[in-house]
Amino acid sequence: METPIPEGEDGTLIGASYVLKEEEQLAQIWSAQDRIRHERRSRETREIIGGLRQHLEQLRAQTDTLWERFVTLTLERILSDQLREFLDEVETEVHDLSQGLVEADCEIDRLRADIQERRRGLEERLALLEPLAHRTSTQNHLGMMLSRVEGLEAYLLGKKDVTPEAYEMHYKRHTTAPGDLLYLRIRLLTTRVAITAANYSRQLSELAFELTALLPEIERLKTDMATLMTRVECVSDLSRYWLAYLDIATTKTA
User: Fold this and answer.
1) pTM over 0.85
2) C-alpha 201: how far from its chain's center?
3) Does residue 150 carry a pLDDT above 80?
4) Which DSSP letter does residue 172 get?
5) pLDDT over 90 at 67, yes or no
6) Based on the structure, what is the number of domains in the chain?
7) What's the Cα-to-Cα distance from 137 to each of 26, 33, 126, 142, rounded to whole Å?
8) Residue 24: inside a domain, yes or no?
9) Could you give the CA distance from residue 188 to residue 69 in angstroms, rounded to a whole number?
10) Apex CA 10: angle with CA 188 and CA 6, to 5°?
11) Which residue from 68, 112, 179, 180 has the least number of CB within 10 angstroms?
12) Is 105 inside a domain boundary?
């Protein structure tokens, strides 16, 4: 999309206003402060992932210990007539472990939602940058400036053997050197905006890719969490089974 630059004194003012508007729009889309904020949040996200991984390993160790105690000591407690007390201890450990696992699982969900939301935010910014950056691929834009420069050169040097494009720009339309210079200045400024927008687009694409690369790690955490939850639930189900067995045995004895 080309920035329209009408001819004439009023037209140059309009063209300058377009440039100011685009520069303001560019600053609103992405700025140095936005990048600093994004980098800080990315560091925090990686730290949270590392903390969750460590916490998950602690929960895994507790789950392994609980499972081993339950498997190895249940029969011993049956023979020593201490099964109910043992199962009460197991249920307390199961409750504490389950609460820790649920809290960690919720934290993983919040982290995943935050990453996805930030990625959507970057994609929205990319969509806004696209029309500003697209001009860098417009050859007509550069051709118009080149014709204007050639015409201005011919006008200043008094040449008559100019190209038709230059003739249209100067002799036929009676433009002036100051007008040409202002035109070129505005065109160069819009080109600078376009190049900056293209650079921002590349940066944001890389940042969005980095966020996307974090999601597989989040999914691995979710998978490991689900495995631990299954083991803890298994211990809880077996514990309830043995408690039901004790209740039945007590009823028959009575």
Assistant:
1) no
2) 13
3) no
4) I
5) yes
6) 1
7) 18, 28, 17, 9
8) no
9) 75
10) 50
11) 68
12) yes
* Token pair of 53 as six digits: 């991984």
Please report, rounded to a whole number, the percentage of residues in the chain having pLDDT higher than 70: 76
Token pair of 96 as six digits: 């504490």
Check pLDDT > 70 for residue 11: no
**Cα–Cα distance, 127 to 132 (Å, whole number):** 10
| CA dihedral over 169, 173, 176, 178, signed as positive or negative | negative
Enumerate the H helices of the chain as residue ranges. 9-29, 32-79, 83-133, 139-157, 164-167, 177-253
- Residue carrying structure tokens 């049956």: 78
Place of tokens 């505005």: 186
Which CATH number is 79's domain given? 1.10.287
Contact indicator for 79, 248 with CB cutoff of 8 Å: no
**Single-letter amino acid, residue 174:** H
Residue 83 within any structural domain of the chain: yes
Residue 191, both tokens: 């080109």
Q: Average pLDDT over the chain, rounded to whole?
A: 83
Q: How far apart are CA 137 and CA 177, in angstroms?
A: 28
Beta-carbon contacts of residue 183 (< 8 Å; ≥ 6 apart): 5, 12, 15, 148
pLDDT per residue as tens digits for the range 15-26:
567 778 888 888
Unique residue bearing structure tokens 């690369």:
213
What does the alpha-carbon distance between residue 200 and residue 30 come to, in Å, rounded to a whole number? 7
